[in-house]
Structure formats: C-alpha cells, structure tokens
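fyi for ur records
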Amino acid sequence: MASSSDIIDRAVEENSDSLKELSGKIWEKPELAYEETFAHDTLTDYLEQHGFQVDRKFKLDTAFRAVYKQGSGGPNIGYICEYDALPGIGHACGHNLIAESGVAAAMGLRAALQANPSTSATITLMGTPAEECGGGKINLIDAHAFDGIDVCLMAHPFSKNMMDSPKLACNHGSVTFTGRAAHAAAAPWEGVNALDAVVSAYNALSMLRQQIKPDHRLHAVITEGGTRPNIIPERAVMPFYIRAPTDKELGVLKSKVTDIMKAAALATGCSVNVEYSVEDRPAHYSNVITNKRLIESYTGHWKSFKPACPTISPDVGGGSTDMGNVSYVVPSIHPEFDVGCEAMIHTRDFTAFANTPEAHAATRCVAKAMSATGWDVVADSSLLAAVKEGFQKQLASIS
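which gave:
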C-alpha cells in the first residue's frame, strides 16, 4: 500500500495543470479587498467541480467555505485561501499562490483520507478576502467562522524559506486635524493651521523611532494638507500604521502615538480625531503565534517533498497579517516559501514572478507539506493533544 506522502504527492501532481490554471486566472484579474468576486467565483466553481461541499459568500460576500467530511468525528483540519491583490501592482504579494496552495493542500489531504476510509476527519478550506487591507479573517472570526476547526495551516510566497518568520501585531489608524481657514497673506493670524499640526505629528513620529525597539515599526503618509497656498489649511489627514512583536507591546506604542497626535493639536490650536478603525474595517492585526509542534511536522514534510536540498533562512520579520488573529483562536502556522525570485514582495518584479513555473512548483511543494501535516494530526491523536497543549501555553506566555 502506498504511503500517505506518496498518495498526497500523486494527488497534487495529478491536478497540477488545473491548479496552475486556477492560480493564473486569479493572477490575471487582480481584485482589491472585499471586491474579489471573480476570485471567489473561480475558486468556488473549481472546488465544487472537484467534489467539495461549498458555502459561497460564507459570512462575507467574497468569502467561502469548502468542506470534505469523512466518517463521524475526528479532527477538523483547516486550510486558508487568500486572493486579494494590491492597488496598482496586482498580485505583488502572491495571493494567487496562497489560493493555489490552500486548494492543493485540501485535495492532497482528502486523497489520503479516501485511501484510509475507516479514518474520520473533516477538511475545512476557508476562503478569506481582504488580507491586504481590511482584515477579512478578523470579520470571519467575529462571525464564528473558525469555530470547530482544530488547526489552521497556510503558507505565504516570499523570496526566502522561513518557517517561523515573526509577523508583527499592527494597528491601522488615521488622524484628522481640524483648524480654521484664513487668507494666508491678508490675515494669517485668523487661521488655525491644520497642516502645521499634521507636519508636527509626522516629525514627532520620526523622532519617536529613535526611542523605540528595533522590532517596532511606525509608518505614516499625509493624504490631505490643504487645497491652495493662499488658504491656511483647515483640514489635514494622516493615515498611519503601528507595529510591534506582540499585542501587549503594541498597546504601549499605541499610547505613545496617540499622545503625539494630541500634543500636535495642542501646539497648533487644532482639534484632533484619532481613529483606530478606518472605513468600518478592523484595524488591529495580531502577531502570528506559530504552533511549535505543527511547524515541526510541516518542516519535516516540506524538506522531504522539496526536490533539491532546501535552504532555510533565519527567521526575520517585519510585516503583519490577519492570520495572526486566527493564530490567537486556533493553533496555526504561517511559513514562508521561496518562489525563486530575489525581489521582495509588494514589488512589480514579484508580481511578474507570481505566475511562473518556478512559483507554481514551489507552491505545490508547500501544499503537499501542509497536506501531510494535516494527515499527521488526523492519524496521531497524541500530536493533536500536544498541539493544543502548546497552544494554550503560548497564549499564557504572552498574555
């Protein structure tokens, strides 16, 4: 009888052409957060055609859930599809490959289950929109979409292989300063300059960077600062991001940033409004908690499926993802995998590489590793127990 790894390998490779086509369709038609109707329909059509029970528009208009259930009871193994793109540069974060890997992983594990008909388990593939901007997974968590899932696995394309790259907790915010307009030449003293306030706040953020830890991050852009030079600006707006290694540290940094905004308003005589939820979208991305037992299983399988001797880079972080929020409610992993491109994500060069044969081959490899990790959890109840015990200890250590 073939091993589970052989069964998984064969199932993914037998579908490699259609998986590549699926990913390519999403890559060719990039869609922004909460607008991913084409990707949603393309993925759900494919999954229905391949025998999954699909709930379209699951909790959100562009989210979905695809399920395969065998027997009664057993673990529920979760996989993730992402498929939103970036404005102007398309799939520069390779979410078409994340969608491909999630579908392939679910198909691989299903093949292993079907080869062992007496084994009971459920596969839940979650289609999660709006990772880049909006936190679709956070909305899904709030809607209890992840209830009943025992573990959740996804992998992210990158320019290196990293098993536990730290993903920072992040707050998305925006500050609006309101002053009073006046003629800038005839009576400037009658005005209250909102542009001065936002420039003061921006400069103070820059100065704060010297006093924060190396793994903390601050980013801001001024999007409104007046209309004409001869009018004292009465409104100025600055969106900003705050990042730190954990939710707890993020709270401390957030307090300092809020004080900066208040100080800038006080210094210029403006009123200020600081918002940490923009356009009714979730503003807080948690750091990723990588489950140690799951990532050990994944790493071993990934090495075995990789055709050449793989190089694992030191884990370095900097970005943020709403998968972090999932990792606070379900034991999770979020490894990154090298697609063969030296360019960093969020660049046009990476966009071009996200639909190449090399990228698809790397994606199939990580999909097989996620399938095999899911099988380990299904086949070994002691592993699932250890995963859940470790999850509780990790949560306790950072609370």
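DSSP finds twelve helices and 13 strands in the chain. thats all i got for now
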